[in-house]
Task: structure prediction
Amino acid sequence: MHEVDLLVIGAGINGAGIARDASGRGLKVLLCEQHDLAAHTSSASSKLIHGGLRYLEQGEFGLVRKALGEREVVRRQAPFLVRPLCFVLPWQPHLRPRWMLRLGLWLYDHLGRRGPAFPASRAVDLHDDPLGALLSPQLQHAFS
Ligand SMILES: Cc1cc2nc3c(=O)[nH]c(=O)nc-3n(C[C@H](O)[C@H](O)[C@H](O)COP(=O)(O)OP(=O)(O)OC[C@H]3O[C@@H](n4cnc5c(N)ncnc54)[C@H](O)[C@@H]3O)c2cc1C
Result:
């Protein structure tokens, strides 16, 4: 009989991550999966290592800080898999006020340890900025 320190049931991203972390700390780990590695929800993920921007609106600052910290850990551990990706968020008058989005993104920039790989968010004038080239000319304001 083999003795283990930790039995992890389910090899989605959480089980696989826990097993990897624990074995990296020297524990004897057994990972059991009924089907295949990442066969279920984890196979459907968009693969974004995000920090949970939308949770700021619910006042979940601690959660966002932790998620941003983890983003940095994953980026350092797997630079061959994780790379920064610029998103352009166009703004339109029926959305949240622009000042609110700017404030949320500023908080997001400052809550976590943002390494040099992640440039700060910024307001973009789509009529002047190359980022606007592929978007409808009716859109003028955005954030990256
Ligand atoms: C469309 C979509 C897009 C998403 N995009 C993102 C994203 O961009 N970024 C992000 O961070 N998150 C994203 N998510 C969320 C993320 O995918 C999930 O939070 C994550 O995959 C959950 O992983 P898990 O390991 O908890 O669960 P799962 O991946 O479901 O793994 C659980 C595993 O446990 C196994 N299991 C269960 N019971 C047993 C048992 N009794 N014995 C053996 N094995 C068992 C199952 O077979 C399964 O393989 C997205 C989710 C969806 C649906």
